[in-house]
Amino acid sequence: MNNKKKCFVIMPVSGTKSCTEAEWTGIFQQMIKPAVTGSRLGFDCVRAKPLTGAFIKDILEGLNRADVVIADLTDRNPNVCYELGIRHTLKKRTILIAQNIDDVPSDLQSYWVVIYKKDLTGASEFKTKIRDILKEMQKDPEKSDSPVADFLRLKNIDLLSTQKAENYKKLIALVSELSENLDHIDSVFKEATNNQKLRKQKKGKGEIVISVVRFDTTCLDLLISTHYVTLSEDALQSARKIRERLKIGNARLDCWHDDAFAENIEERFIEFLPNLKTNIITFLKHVNIVRMAYINDNYQEPTEPAILLSSSEHQEYLKLTK
């Protein structure tokens, strides 16, 4: 199997103002190919076939699969310009060469460009420049090398900015949900406590109050299921426990109206709601810190994997990944 990297060369295949067809073949065989393979960076170097008929698919495949493309813009050959536009749309790592700088569009002259001469001295200089660029590409393969790459990078920044705004809204919604649940806890705890007093005093059933509120876990569910903001494992564990207890609370609220369970449910509420309130307040403070750091670009995501710590296997995995 040939594991060498591919360098795909697009250049005129027939005579132009500067070179005959034979001269173009000589430039590829005696300058471009030796420069690429002689860089000792593990490249094969092939030349694109004429852009006609069935060869178009082959050229598109070559432009898409190549690790590096070299485009000779001498005389601004239409086929070469067309193929270069396709490559810029598909991938990075493209080197522009020409015999005259005027043949390189001004918008492209700030990228990887090599101007060469068709003599022995020019061939030697060309070989050195190509080798240096290939080495630089290996060090920084994602470096922008075209206006298209610049545009896509900016669009990605815009997308990240949009996503950040959406995540911030989710954090605000989470803070609101937690705050509302704290109010519900106070309300349920008060009603349960009052009902217990009334029961002990053996007062009338009509004075017993059954809460109609329900705890909301929508935003907690979203955070836990999507990890739109990465929290520490301790914080995630806290979020999971809070969600579980809130859902248990809702199940008890649903049964509270049944006289057979009402007194026991009130005792349970009085027992566990204060602790749940404390946990929510602690978690809410953490979320608020994350929210402020997130909007100010100061939030550093935890490095440990966000996994459950309840099993020995996960604990062992954590040790291995530190």
How would you characterize this protein structure?
By secondary structure, this protein is of the alpha/beta class. It has 2 domains: 141 residues, Rossmann fold (3-Layer(aba) Sandwich); 166 residues. The protein is 60% helix and 7% strand. The protein contains 9 helices and 5 strands; from the N terminus they run βαβαβαββαααααα. The chain has a 5-stranded parallel beta sheet with strand order 2-1-3-4-5, sandwiched between helices.
List the helices and strands and how they pair.
Blueprint: E1 5-10, H1 21-37, E2 43-47, H2 55-65, E3 68-72, H3 78-90, E4 94-98, E5 113-115, H4 120-139, H5 147-200, H6 218-226, H7 233-255, H8 259-295, H9 312-321
Parallel strand pairs: 1-2, 1-3, 3-4, 4-5
Largest sheet: 5 strands, parallel
Number of strands: 5
N-to-C CA distance:
37 Å
**Gyration radius, in Å:** 34 Å
Class computed from helices, strands and strand pairing = alpha/beta
Concise synopsis of the structure shown:
With 322 residues, the protein is an alpha/beta fold. It has helices at 21-37, 55-65, 78-90, 120-139, 147-200, 218-226, 233-255, 259-295, 312-321, and strands at residues 5-10, 43-47, 68-72, 94-98, 113-115.
Task: Give structural attributes.
9 helices; Rossmann fold; 322 residues; 2 domains; 5-stranded parallel beta sheet; single chain
